[in-house]
Amino acid sequence: MTTIPSLSPNNYERLKIMLSQMLHFNDIPAEAIEFILAAAIPRHFEAGQVIYLEGEPANFVYFLERGWVKATRITPEGREQGLLFLNPVEIFGDIAVFTGTTYPGTTTALEAVDVWLLPSETLLLLIKRYPDLAFAFIRKLSERILHYIGLVEDLSLKSVEARLASTLLRYAELRNEQLIVPRRQWTTFDEMAVRLGTVRDVLSRAMKTLEIEGYLKVEKQTIVILDLKGLLERANR
Prior knowledge:
The chain is an alpha+beta fold. It is 44% helix and 24% strand.
């Protein structure tokens, strides 16, 4: 199959580089990659803009090139529950495309975001023609299932303090011999509460508890982990 990319040279190279960074796409035939390059549509969203709403038809699968996005659902009581928080390079919207249903959650840009939209019919055609691409998505969906299993376990079995400790450890970085969790502009207590399935006041108390107990120190731009071993134990309670 031969196609002529419709993107500008700059966008073509951007998308090609992004796809090369996706682990699950390493074994996909070059002609399948070229087909994706020809069909993908670039889009930009500013912080707070909705990318798609829960219940909308799944017309596209999305490739995240730049920025952070969140996928959430709203409970009958009006509370926002975080499903996914994604950073580059990632794929989202694929579950609904493969099941032929509507999007199961609302996805919103947390900061300036660049994404690529691949029409669902194009993806389904590629899946039929290229088994390696099908296996790539099976692996990706399997990882997503494991994520949701972990989310259900955390929400049902772990305290807010344990969920907070686990999340902080997941995003900790070693800088200048300190283990820190950078706080991005959108990392407010409200957004962290959404991520952990709680409310701001409960999260604030949990953070204060961990700080008083000596596990961490909250600073303006970062959270410094002071007791790694202790925080690991706290995350597993």
